[in-house]
Amino acid sequence: MLRLHRLQRAPRLFTPNPAGALRMLLLIATCILLMFYDHQRGHLTRVHAALSTVVYPIQAAVNAPYALADWAGEKLATHRTLVRANAAMRQQLLADSAQLQQFQALEQENAQLRDLLQAGKRVDGHVMAASLLAVDMDPFRHMMTINKGTRAGVYDGQTLLDAHGIVGQIIRADPWSSEAALITDPNQATPVQINRTGLRTLAVGGVDVNALSLPYLANNADVQVGDLLVTSGLGGRYPAGYPVAVVTRVQRNPAEPFASVSARPVAELNGGHTVLLFFPAVAPPSPPPPPARKLKTPARKKPR
Q: Residue 114, Cα to own-chain centre: how many angstroms?
């Protein structure tokens, strides 16, 4: 009974209040009248401005977290975009750099081909361009393999040139390729003469691909640094008058019968990818055919 009594005496959450409802209606009506009056006359503009000035800090404080979040998101997106753009530009720069290097190599090769073309116009005969297939620069073997062989008219002993001078000589001609010994090969001796004086001697190869020695010049020989050595044409190994080397060192020892003379080849033996095969205006004599084998005829037996 006590519990039922307490439930009956408990206050209600929403109690009917006619006076409160009337006040609410009056406030709503007043607001509507003020809005209509302001819309028609515009006399409350100053009141609006004053109220907005008072309310603006509150609005800014409420909007600050959202503005900060938008700013941070925009900055983060901008940073990511910049990082991606930077990476893309780096890749493009590397690609452009590689392409530029390729263009520079092609430009250098074109310059070499132009020089070879001019050199081909100066020779007494005709030339044929050949590309290098392999280069062997062992200290005791200076060889190169080219992509032309006997099917292109290459023959043993043929001269190789570049835009600057003598490169070497074909030592083995196969149908599709050929092997040439450079003038600096230790087993090669090139007949040369000093262009200034006409003095003839031999330029001998060695272990250095960029050097030749002239071991057979006497101490009193008229030779000096800067002299140009050209082929003498003796022996028929090379055509006469083509540049071979430039003298770089001359040492004379009174106790020795010969001077120590070194020279630097003018041909680019370590550079370039193309050489010229020289065909003289007069074809070289072909080697004599091997002697015919004599067939042994059986001796006739004398009749008894």
A: 20
pLDDT of residue 183: 96
6 located within any domain: no
Strand runs (DSSP E) across the chain, as ranges?
Answer: 125-138, 141-146, 159-161, 166-173, 178-182, 189-194, 200-204, 212-213, 228-231, 243-251, 260-265, 274-280
Residue 112 lies in a domain: no
Give the mean model confidence (pLDDT) for residues 71-89: 79
DSSP bridge pairs for 145: 134, 179
Please check whether residue 183 lies inside any domain of the structure. Answer: yes
φ/ψ of residue 96, rounded to 5: -65, -35
Residue partners of 206: CB distance under 8 A and separation at least 6 = 184, 186, 212, 213
CATH of the domain at 176: 2.40.10.340
Q: What is the DSSP letter of 150?
A: G
Does 269 map to a domain? yes
Q: What is the number of structural domains in the chain? A: 1
CB atoms within 10 A of CB 205: 22
Q: Kindly state the average pLDDT of the residues 9-24.
A: 63
DSSP 196-256: TT--EEEEE--S-TT-EE-TT-BTT----TTPEEEE--GGGSS-TT-EEEEEEEEE--TTS
Residue 291 has pLDDT above 50, yes or no: yes
Its pTM stands at 0.57
- Give residue 187's domain range: 123-280
